[in-house]
What we know:
The chain is of the alpha/beta class. It has a single domain, classed as Rossmann fold. The protein is built from six helices and four strands. It has helices at 15-26, 47-55, 70-75, 84-93, 108-111, 124-142, and strands spanning 4-9, 31-36, 78-81, 101-103. It has a four-stranded parallel beta sheet, sandwiched between helices. Helix 4 links the parallel strand 3 and strand 4. The radius of gyration is 14 Å and the shape is globular. The protein starts with a strand and ends with a helix.
Amino acid sequence: MFHHLLVVCTGNICRSPVGEAMLKASLPDKNVESAGLGALVGQGVEPTARELAEAEGLDVAEHKARQISQDMLQRADLILVMSEGQRRAIGEMAPAALGKTMLIGRWLDGGKGVEIPDPYRKSREAFEHVHRMLKEATDSWVARV
């Protein structure tokens, strides 16, 4: 059903590359990419996010932040965003993509759905909290794709 997944956040250096790596590790037969709505183009994964990802055996070393494009939105079967604001922004960019754009935290909190906060420039604890949320969120999607 879903073969091409796109994980989106703001800068494409904290949440989406880690979410991408988690999904790739669990869904090796799927094409998973990530991008940012305001990407810090060319930058690698933020050091704390990278350290937490690598501690779990996730490979994020080669990641370079990319700006989201119309082409990426069209190619994706499922677009996973961190917040409702990002979902709206994608809907404005590509109205046809709105129906396949969902919160990555959609199945958390008993199915009520949860936004994943941006840990950028925050404490290590904030990064650890977001990492745990991403793990729960991606695990909840693995069973559904």
